[in-house]
Specification:
Layout: E1 7-13, H1 21-32, E2 37-41, H2 53-59, H3 63-74, E3 77-81, H4 91-100, E4 111-117, H5 125-136, E5 141-142, E6 148-150, H6 166-186
Parallel strand pairs: 1-2, 1-3, 3-4, 4-5, 4-6
């Protein structure tokens, strides 16, 4: 918990694009967070190098990985918002989490939730499934439902970046409120 007593949630965007739809979804979730929950959006994992065990053996864990690891560790829960690339997890996000899985990984018993938007009709259903499989190996505790798969995400924002889907807004608000309850229920 933060010093104010609020649940501290780390929001991680799975896209490296500055104005990605998924970053906008995280910002919406932050705005819709219920009282008692604060969502802090992580800057980016763009400076994390591609994982190579030889580099790790020679140079150790990069500072950018240590910084993200400590942010995950300090959070009461982690909220992912990610796109779907080729029916799966974006490579950059998977790479960052592969680094985090090395030495002193922060995900064991960490409450997590995942949402995302993509252009296709299934939203990010496949990528979310793959991420859940991968993170289960690290002991993360994913909220099973509700789920948020924003299909045709490019049609859900106006030219000013405002989310225009009222039903979607309601569902994301319910999702964030459910995550708050999930964190309280499962955290050690």
């Amino acid at each position: 918990m933060s010093e104010s007593g609020d649940l501290n949630v780390l929001g991680i965007c799975g896209s490296l694009r500055k104005n990605s739809y998924n970053r906008r979804l995280l910002e919406l979730a932050k705005d819709l967070a219920p009282e008692g929950m604060v969502i802090n959006i992580y800057k980016s994992f763009a400076d994390i190098p591609v994982y190579n065990g030889d580099d790790e053996d020679r140079d150790g864990i990069p500072a950018s990985v240590v910084e993200l690891r400590e942010a995950v560790r300090a959070a009461d829960g982690v909220l992912l918002a990610m796109p779907e690339y080729n029916f799966s997890v974006p490579g950059g996000l998977k790479n960052a989490f592969d680094w985090l899985s090395r030495k002193d990984q922060p995900f064991t018993d960490k409450p997590m939730a995942i949402m995302g938007g993509a252009a296709g009709v299934l939203g990010t259903g496949r990528s979310q499934y793959h991420m859940r499989q991968s993170m289960a190996a690290l002991g993360a505790i994913f909220m099973p439902r509700p789920e948020v798969f924003v299909a045709a995400v490019h049609t859900k924002f106006d030219d000013d970046g405002n989310f225009t889907d009222e039903l979607g807004r309601t569902l994301i608000g319910q999702f964030v409120a459910a995550f708050q309850k999930w964190i309280v229920q499962v955290r050690p």
